[in-house]
């Protein structure tokens, strides 16, 4: 398969990564929760590992320098064919480029940026590393959703930078937009108004598939994490919002078939 064929279409979420203070205990938590194994990633990123599920890459975890006190959060990466052009578009459309564009060894070229509402995301131009190579099985990232105040303004930003088509759910009390690439839903924007956590602001949420949401939520607590929103039925399936021991928020989902 050629590199062109394995690369994701621009705008498609292609990777999730997490930067933490304690790399070893974080690996232990996710290994116990999702069955992940780990191998070292590009040394140019500092201490960094790639999580594997049955040998397939699913996510990345890196270690923050001791003097860096950044929010601990999962970061969604969106595919691009040209990280430099994407960085320029982000700035032009009112976003902020925080890191890059820079090369991650021979793996690819990355940008870490924030949208006009302050939500942090990455853009990934694949070279040797195309991103997550398995989807749908328990322990894999299966969806990414932006939680923001309202979707209209920030939706225009993502449409312009990544060329999405959009499908809005029209409702007086529900502000939800699905973003599509070549007619296929790839991620969503959810306007929650004043329900947005004041301490987090706008942020991207990663959904990880699990075999049993209730059991996985119990495991999170046993392993030193916290359950923020207990298991409940949602349109996507049975979900629970949790944090790992360092406070990174993510959602467990047992997707509807």
TrEMBL record:
It holds the Pfam family Glyoxalase_6. This is VOC family protein. Residues 12-126, 140-255 form the VOC domain. InterPro entries: Anthracycline_SecMetBiosynth, Glyas_Bleomycin-R_OHBP_Dase, Glyoxalase_6, VOC_core. Gene3D superfamilies: 2,3-Dihydroxybiphenyl 1,2-Dioxygenase, domain 1.
């Amino acid at each position: 398969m050629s590199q062109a064929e394995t690369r994701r279409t621009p705008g498609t979420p292609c990777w999730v990564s997490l930067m933490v203070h304690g790399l070893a205990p974080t690996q232990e938590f996710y290994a116990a929760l999702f069955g992940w194994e780990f191998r070292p990633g590009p040394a140019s990123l500092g201490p960094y590992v790639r999580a594997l599920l049955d040998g397939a890459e699913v996510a990345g975890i890196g270690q923050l320098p001791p003097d860096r006190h950044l929010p601990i959060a999962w970061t969604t990466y969106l595919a691009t064919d040209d990280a430099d052009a994407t960085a320029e578009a982000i700035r032009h459309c009112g976003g902020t480029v925080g890191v890059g564009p820079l090369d991650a060894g021979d793996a690819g070229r990355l940008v870490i940026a924030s949208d006009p509402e302050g939500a942090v995301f990455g853009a990934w131009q694949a070279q040797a590393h195309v991103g997550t190579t398995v989807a749908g099985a328990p322990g894999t990232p299966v969806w990414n959703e932006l939680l923001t105040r309202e979707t209209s303004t920030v939706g225009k930003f993502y449409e312009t930078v990544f060329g999405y088509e959009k499908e809005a759910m029209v409702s007086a009390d529900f502000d939800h937009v699905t973003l599509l690439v070549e007619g296929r839903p790839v991620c969503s924007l959810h306007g929650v108004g004043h329900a947005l956590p004041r301490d987090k602001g706008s942020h991207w949420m990663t959904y990880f598939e699990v075999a049993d949401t209730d059991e996985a939520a119990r495991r999170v607590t046993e392993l030193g994490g916290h359950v923020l929103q207990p298991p409940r039925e949602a349109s996507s399936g049975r979900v629970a919002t949790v944090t790992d021991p360092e406070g990174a928020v993510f959602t467990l989902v047992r997707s509807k078939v």
